[in-house]
Amino acid sequence: MADTVPSDSWSLGDPYERYVGRWSLPVAREFLDWLAMPPALRWLDVGCGTGALTAAIREKCQPARLTGVDPSDAFLQKAIARFEEAIALEPG
Fold first, then answer.
1. CA–CA distance, 6 with 3 (Å, rounded to integer)
2. What is the pLDDT of residues 49-90, one digit of tens each?
3. What is the CA radius of gyration of the chain?
4. Which candidate, 52, 60, 56, 59, places its Cα nearest to that of 78?
5. Mode of pairing for the β-strands spanning 88-91 and 42-46
6. In a 3-state reduction of DSSP, which class is residue 2?
7. Torsion of CA 57, 52, 31, 38, to 10 degrees
8. Is 41 within 8 Å of 61 (Cβ atoms)?
9. Beta sheet of 42-46, edge-to-edge order
């Protein structure tokens, strides 16, 4: 029997996005509505994952600066792909 390690789909952006991510953006929008923060704040999304909350902040809050960090390179790549222009998403 070969020593193989099963793939952990939770560490990959696409499988996570299909299972959990479809709810993340609607929940993030509701959360930001509840927070009711003023525009032009500096935001830090720690554990940004695939970028749903980061995208919602950009869409709804008119941030002065927006930074997302996540230890997962696969999740960061998925988050970066959400945006057409540069946002400071840095590995954590």
1. 10
2. 889 999 999 999 999 999 999 999 988 988 888 875 544 554
3. 15
4. 52
5. unpaired
6. coil
7. 0
8. yes
9. 42-46, 65-70, 88-91
Q: What's the rounded Cα separation, in Å, for the pair 64 and 66?
A: 7
Return the SS3 of 68: strand
- The single residue listed with the structure tokens 């749903």 is 52
Q: Which of 90, 56, 58, 55 is CA-nearest to residue 76?
A: 90
Within 8 A by CB and 6+ apart from 60, the residues are: 29, 32, 33
46-24-69 Cα angle (round to 5):
20
Question: Which residues face 46 on adjacent strands?
Answer: 69
**Mean pLDDT score across all residues of the chain:** 83
Contact 81, 49 (CB under 8 A): no
Q: Please report which helix (H) or strand (E) contains residue 66, including its range.
A: strand 65-70
How many other C-beta atoms are found inside a 10 Å radius of the C-beta of residue 64?
Answer: 10
